[in-house]
Write a structure and sequence with these properties.
By secondary structure, the chain is an alpha+beta fold. It has a domain of about 120 residues. About 30% of the residues lie in helices and about 25% in strands. It is built from five helices and seven strands. Strands 1, 2, 3, 4, 5, 6 and 7 form a seven-stranded antiparallel beta sheet that branches. Strand 4 and strand 5 form a beta hairpin. The radius of gyration is 29 Å and the shape is globular. About 0% of the residues have low confidence.
């Protein structure tokens, strides 16, 4: 008796079919990147522009604001005096101006009107246990260390230099640490705001990113002079 065995034929893709399928896939991916790649780039640029605008606005608001306590005593409740002091001394290590956001407790307000930082070690609900507060402080501020423990995101610092007139335009002053008559540079008015002859100070603000949020780094190893490439620069003004 003869036995008949049924052969099983397993059909697969041929090499030609695989190449065609791969080609179609490449075309689809290329088309996807062509459509959505530029959109993703625009989104990234938009976020960067938004962050730059936030930093600028936060700085401008602080320079025109006198906080309760130390600001009132140090600057005689004169926001223009504060602005002159911060601009002229922003290149100094102990007076470097920092800009950041931190998690603040909306139920606890400190003497200077800012929110008490929250404990990052606890589970927190946004809007209930904490709110994000934009902040500007100098390195010598006694409240800075507590803020850094609740920082949300990156920390930036800014170097400010007065702009003075040259011909029909403005240029960055060669001498830092002073506020002079922008039309006739010479006498330093940084310590005597009442004698400053103009109603406006124009200045260049260079924004840099800190490599770490360590308070120990800021008070010991940090040297603003070593940072020479700002992430962005804006020309701003402060009014009397």
């Amino acid at each position: 008796m003869k036995k008949h065995f049924k052969k099983s034929h397993l059909k697969g893709f041929t090499l030609a079919e695989s190449v065609i399928a791969l080609g179609i896939l490449v075309v689809l991916i290329t088309g996807f990147l062509a459509v959505f790649g530029p959109a993703a780039t625009v989104i990234r640029k938009t976020l960067s522009a938004d962050e730059a605008s936030r930093l600028q606005t936060t700085l401008e608001r602080e320079l025109s604001n006198i906080r309760e306590g130390d600001d009132e005593q140090r600057y005689l409740s004169n926001s223009f005096y504060k602005a002159m002091n911060w601009i002229s001394r922003s290149h100094e290590r102990g007076n470097t101006v920092l800009i950041y956001k931190y998690r603040g407790n909306p139920a606890e307000i400190r003497i200077d009107g800012t929110l008490e930082p929250t404990d990052r070690g606890k589970i927190q609900l946004a809007g209930e246990d904490y709110v994000i507060q934009p902040m500007v402080r100098r390195v010598d501020d006694p409240l800075l260390e507590d803020d850094l423990g609740a920082v949300d995101g990156r920390v930036f610092f800014v170097k400010m230099t007065q702009l003075i007139f040259e011909g029909e335009g403005l240029r960055v002053a060669e001498e830092i640490g002073v506020i002079t008559d922008p039309y006739d540079p010479g006498e330093d008015f940084a310590a005597t705001p009442d004698e400053y002859p103009e109603a406006v100070i124009a200045y260049e603000a260079q924004f840099f990113t800190l490599p770490t949020v360590s308070y120990d780094f800021l008070t010991n190893a940090f040297n603003p002079e070593k940072f020479t490439k700002p992430v962005f620069t804006r020309n701003l003004t402060v009014r009397r």
